[in-house]
Amino acid sequence: MTEQGKYFREAQVLARVPFSRSTLRRRVAEGAFPAPVVFGERVKAWLIEEIEDWERQAVIKRDARRVALAATTARAVV
């Protein structure tokens, strides 16, 4: 776990997530990705803790889809 209050700049976020800068900005605008903290007119950064939480939630959603698919497949076989 990271120390509370540490930040990623945009390039660091993009190095961790599997999408482009325009997709990152669109997902932030849609509320589907954590918003950055704005420190000034040209300075923004994302809390590392929030990025890690988003990553964990993505894994949880993936695993839930796998379980649902396995259940559906098992019923179809029976």
Strand-helix topology:
Elements: E1 7-8, H1 10-16, H2 21-30, E2 37-40, E3 43-47, H3 48-77
Antiparallel strand pairs: 1-3, 2-3
Q: What is the compact description of this entry?
A:
The protein is α+β, with helices and mostly antiparallel strands and 78 residues long. Helix content is 60%, strand content 14%.
Largest sheet: 3 strands, antiparallel
Distance between the termini: 43 Å
Q: What's the count of strands?
A: 3
Count of runs of 4 or more consecutive helical residues: 3
Rg (C-alpha, Å):
17 Å
- Could you give the order of the helices and strands? EHHEEH
Average pLDDT taken over every residue:
90
Spatial strand sequence of the major β-sheet: 1-3-2
Q: How much helix is in the residues?
A: 55-70%
Summed up, the domain count is 1
> Unreliable runs, pLDDT <50, ≥5 residues?
none
Could you tell me the strand content as a percent range? 5-15%
User: Helix- and strand-based class?
Assistant: alpha+beta
So what's the overall shape?
elongated
